[in-house]
Amino acid sequence: MSPDVEHAKRALRAELRERRQLLSEQQREVAASGITAQLDELVAAHDARSISCFLSTTTEPDTREFIIGAVRRGIRVLLPITRADGLLDWAVADDTDDVAEGLFGLPEPTGEVLGPIAVNDVDLMIIPAAAVDAEGTRLGWGRGYFDKTIGSMENCPPVYAVTYDSEVLDSLPRELHDQPVTGVVTPTRTLHLSHERP
Fold first, then answer.
1. Residue 150: pLDDT above 90?
2. Which CATH superfamily does the domain covering 3-192 fall into?
3. Which positions are annotated as binding substrate (predicted)?
């Protein structure tokens, strides 16, 4: 890992984290409604019956309303559970707001825990991001869970990252292990970016 690239990523994450913390409650609510509408359209466009998503933290674009709505429409939604070994377990979402606190203080589902390979059956993956660029490079929060998961999948479905509009950037620092995303979903639009996975 290049120290320069790692330093650039760390500085950018800090700046993006600070920007998110400055958003007002009203801005967050408007963003949450937009994200729900965009994700609903994305799922419909892919005719997805089984998806993976994530429980948003308080500073991320809110995914909870989308998850509950999808479950109530009969879509199977898998939510990630972090493990100490760097892999993700998964649990099937229900239409309640029950959450537990996982590693790193992240919100996680409370349902039956399924192993890492459970995600291999989804039609669409929706993952968190700090930022995404025009080439589909995704900047995560530095722990590598989603890069490892995507990189290990034999038949990876389309992968869309969720960010705020201001977090779609022209270019991002990229390393070999960084897995590109198919597209990005913001409160106002869905962009389709990379068409082929390496």
1. yes
2. NagB/RpiA/CoA transferase-like (3.40.50.10420)
3. 55, 60
